[in-house]
Amino acid sequence: MTQPTDDLRIQQARPLLTPASLLEQLPLPEDLANNIAQHRRSVEAVLGGEDQRLLVIVGPCSVHDPNALADYAKQLSAASQSLSDALLVVLRVYFEKPRTVVGWKGLINDPGLDGSFQINQGLQLARKVLLDVAELGLPAATEFLDTTFGQYYTDLVSFGAIGARTVESQVHRELASGLSMPVGFKNGTTGDISVAIDAIRSARHSHVFPSLTKDGSAAVLESSGNPHGYLILRGGRDSGPNYDAASVSAAATALSAHDLPASVIVDASHGNSEKQHQRQAAVVSDLCDQIEQGQNALRGVMLESHLVEGNQSLTSPAELRYGQSITDACLSLDATVPLLQQMASAVRRARTAQ
User: Fold this and answer.
1) Which residues are in the DAHP synthetase I/KDSA domain (predicted)?
2) Does the pTM exceed 0.90?
3) Fewer CB within a 10 Å sphere, N or C end of the chain?
């Protein structure tokens, strides 16, 4: 019997498939699991300074068309093979889109792009996309927004991110403490890096929190803490861009003050490009100069890139331009490859100068 004080604004409840059932439908083969484990170790080695390459996380702002992402991934894989001595290239595979007010929330929430919110289908698509990326031999990075979705595909992810809107969230810090891969924490939307450093510190500790098990049961989980948390500079509403040499050095000093690794990733998009996608090239040029000048704290770069430059409004799915973002504007892949080559050259010259 319905209570007069309960679920007054819930219009419908639909069954959600369990993580275990999805993993059974789309299992991770042992050879790919071993590759992903090695990708994670490689990311940790780069960000920890043991590997002198530069981590580059590159790809679309968000995935809305798995076929276009597959095309992008194949071309990126081919273009980056000759750069593997200097760069560790990780494909950006983001399924969830945080919204300031409302809007399309990402492939998992609305895979049909039509407001039908077929979340079970979205979870299946997300896992299939990550399996296809793993088959190509590319490491994958994704942002964790919903704290339960990860149970469906974290075994396929080599780098996780906590975004600027959620970096102060206790539940996301708890989530990060139990994730099996290295995690990047973005500075807050204002540009404040202290909230991200606090998140890194928090995630290094053990936490006890409610969540879901693989069989879909509610459970209290206890994490061991994640020692591989890293700061991502993405600019901010109040601070403006923070990719310059002084900002990177200040971030490294702030990390060291808390006995954290002085390892910084710079997001060339968002606040650092002042929401102008083409300005990512100028950010990369500045970062290359810093690398060649011996800035050892700069260990990673993030870029938003897709097959086609710019972005488009989400109207009818049938009318969308293939390979162009429906969220943030991106560089084209053709414009991205020269930036990868530029970063690889900077890393090589910096090594020679040492």
Assistant:
1) 45-337
2) yes
3) N
